[in-house]
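User: Quick sanity check before I run a bigger batch. Here is a single chain. Can you write out its predicted 3D structure?
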Amino acid sequence: LPPNESDRLARLRGLGILDTLPQQAYDDISALAMAICKTPMAYIGFIDADREWLKSRKGLDVVEAPRDITLCAHAILQPDQVMVVEDTLLDPRFVDNPLVTGDMGLRFYAGAPIVTADGLAVGTVCVIDRTRRQLDPLQIDALKRLSALVSTLLEHERVRRD
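Assistant: Done. Predicted structure follows.
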């Protein structure tokens, strides 16, 4: 867990994003992430206390997953970096993960933390694949920019609601 977990969860809940209906802007960001990184799947996920909830998803059907198996729960631990796992079978953190060993067969993961203006990582913009792969520096930078765009959208929606 991040050292600021209680603040992070309070901020996430204050954003009012959890369990909301699909929105085109978020779906477009997922589609762009998928196209830029040339992966078959992409999503925008928010890390709640015990689950990761997906606001947007392309190429997969799940809406949420238990937090203790999500790779994104690891990605938010370093809010200033994109976490790239080129081969999950070679990473000791994930080699026994049911998302890797089970039907999903997750082999590649990259997640850019969605960080609020006050520095709290509330979720990620992710791309995944069932085959190992690499991202180049431009793709990693694009993921960072897309996660920053999600953060901006969240803040605009919060201000509009208040």
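The helical segments are 5-15, 24-37, 72-75, 98-101, 137-161.

User: Great, the batch can go ahead then.
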